[in-house]
Design brief:
Elements: H1 8-47, H2 56-143
């Protein structure tokens, strides 16, 4: 009977941590993309605004809209920078979780290889024993 990998529980925990970190990374990247898309849409909307003022009230309205737009773009830029930082942190967390899991996965693979080698060795020993017993019986039966 093959003996179980002693660190199987820890390995499973590390794999769960890695999956959780991968999920967090995917979410952070989605938020990063969303912030970038919002920023691009806002810039595109600003480019679509007419730039000709026909009177003073239109000019004042355009000035107010531009000031508001600058503030909104600054907010979106700050949001995009924050999302980028969160994505970098999530990538680092995923990399660390992956490193912790990979070490244990390698140990499990080595353990499995050793167990299989031991099983094959025991099986070969049993086959050799059967063959040796048959050979002795045949030899003893031939001498009689």
């Amino acid at each position: 009977m093959a003996r179980a990998f002693a660190l199987a529980g820890l390995l499973r925990l590390r794999q769960i941590e890695k999956e959780h970190a991968a999920s967090d990374l995917a979410a952070a990247n989605a938020l990063r993309r969303d912030a970038g898309e919002r920023q691009a849409r806002a810039i595109a909307a600003l480019h679509a605004v007419p730039v000709e003022a026909t009177d003073a009230s239109t000019l004042f309205a355009m000035a107010a809209a531009r000031a508001s737009s600058r503030s909104m773009l600054a907010d979106l830029a700050a949001l995009a920078a924050e999302r980028d930082a969160q994505a970098v942190e999530a990538q680092q967390a995923f990399t660390e979780a992956k490193k912790r899991a990979v070490g244990l996965e390698k140990l499990e693979t080595r353990h499995r290889t050793e167990v299989i080698a031991g099983d094959l060795s025991a099986e070969q020993s049993a086959i050799d024993e059967v063959a040796t017993g048959a050979w002795r019986r045949a030899r003893e039966g031939g001498e009689a």
